[in-house]
Design brief:
The chain is α/β, with parallel strands linked by helices. 44% of the residues lie in helices and 14% in strands. Helix 3 packs across helix 4 and helix 7 packs across helix 8. The radius of gyration is 24 Å and the shape is globular.
C-alpha cells in the first residue's frame, strides 16, 4: 500500500485523514436523513429544495444537498387529475386586481374551491389566502359544493384577520351567493372576480399545494380524517413551510416580521396583468 500511495502521490496520513472526514460527513448525513424523514411525515409533499430551506444543514450547501437527496430517492412523484368544482353564474364582478401593487397584509384575499377524492367519494375544500403574506387565512372542508362552506371559511378568516380591501375569486356560483356578498360588503370589502384560472393564480396554487403536497400523500380514509388532515396541512403550511416569494420563510414568520417594521423591509408585489403586452 505504501508503494501505491507513493505512486499516486499522496501520503498514508492524508488517506486516513480523508477517511476520518468522510466518516464524520456520512454520520452527519445519516442524522440529516432522519430529520428529512420526520419532515416528510409532516410535509409529505415537501420538495428537496424546500427541505433544504427548512433543515438548513450547516455542513452541506444547497447544490450538494439536492444532489444527495435526489440520489437517496427523495424526488417527488406527481400525478395529474381534474374535476370541475365551480359553475359560472351570469352574475359577476369585474377583475379589480390586475396590475395592482400590494405591500401589506389584508389588501387582497383570493379564494377557490378544490375537490379531494377519498375512496370512491369526492369532498370539497375551500381555501382563502392572503396574497401578500401567502398565509391561508380561512378554510373549510365539506361533503357538498354549497356556498355555506365558503361562508364558514370566510367567517374563519374574518375572525382572526383584518378584512381585506379586495376579495377576489373565480366566477363560481358560491361566490355570488347573496349571504356571502352581504358579509363581504358589511366589512367594506370590494369584490373582484377572475375570468380565467390565471387571474386567480394564488388561490389555485394553494389548492394544488395542500392537495398534492399533503393530503394525497397522507391518504385519508374517511371524511373525518380528511378534515383533520386539512387542518394539520394548513397549520404546517402557515407555520413551517418556507415560501420562495417571501424570503424562504413561512407565512406566519413573514407576517410576524412585518409587525417589526424597524427590522424588516417591506417589499411590494404586482399582480400579473395579462392584458399588458410585454
Amino acid at each position: 500500500m505504501n508503494q501505491l500511495y507513493r505512486t499516486i502521490g499522496i501520503s498514508k496520513q492524508a488517506v486516513h485523514q480523508y477517511a476520518k472526514r468522510q466518516a464524520v460527513f456520512d454520520k452527519k448525513v445519516m442524522g440529516l436523513v432522519m430529520e428529512a424523514d420526520r419532515l416528510r411525515e409532516d410535509h409529505p409533499g415537501c420538495g428537496v429544495e424546500k427541505m433544504y430551506d427548512t433543515l438548513r444543514p450547516d455542513f452541506m450547501g444547497r447544490d450538494r444537498f439536492v444532489e444527495t437527496f435526489m440520489e437517496l430517492g427523495y424526488r417527488l412523484k406527481r400525478k395529474k387529475n381534474f374535476r370541475r368544482t365551480t359553475f359560472s353564474s351570469n352574475v359577476s364582478y369585474p377583475n379589480l386586481i390586475k396590475g395592482m401593487e400590494v405591500n401589506a397584509p389584508s389588501v387582497i384575499w383570493q379564494s377557490d374551491i378544490t375537490y379531494v377524492r377519498v375512496g370512491e367519494k369526492f369532498y370539497y375544500a375551500v381555501f382563502i389566502i392572503d396574497v401578500y403574506t401567502k398565509k391561508i387565512v380561512g378554510h373549510q372542508v365539506s361533503d357538498h359544493m354549497r356556498a355555506s362552506a365558503n361562508i364558514k371559511a370566510l367567517q374563519m378568516a374574518l375572525k382572526s384577520n383584518k378584512a381585506p380591501q379586495v376579495h377576489h375569486s373565480d366566477r363560481g356560483s358560491q361566490y355570488i351567493y347573496s349571504k356571502y356578498i352581504d358579509l363581504l360588503k358589511s366589512k367594506g370589502c370590494e369584490i373582484s372576480m377572475a375570468k380565467t384560472a390565471q387571474d386567480n393564480a394564488y388561490a389555485e396554487r394553494i389548492n394544488r399545494t395542500i392537495k398534492n403536497d399533503y393530503i394525497e400523500l397522507w391518504k385519508p380514509k374517511s371524511f373525518e380524517q380528511l378534515k383533520r388532515m386539512v387542518k394539520k396541512a394548513v397549520n404546517q403550511y402557515n407555520t413551517v413551510r418556507p415560501h420562495n416569494n417571501i424570503g424562504r420563510i413561512s407565512p406566519m414568520e413573514f407576517e410576524n416580521r412585518l409587525l417589526m417594521k424597524s427590522t424588516f423591509h417591506q417589499q411590494s408585489i404586482t399582480i400579473f396583468n395579462n392584458e399588458i403586452n410585454v
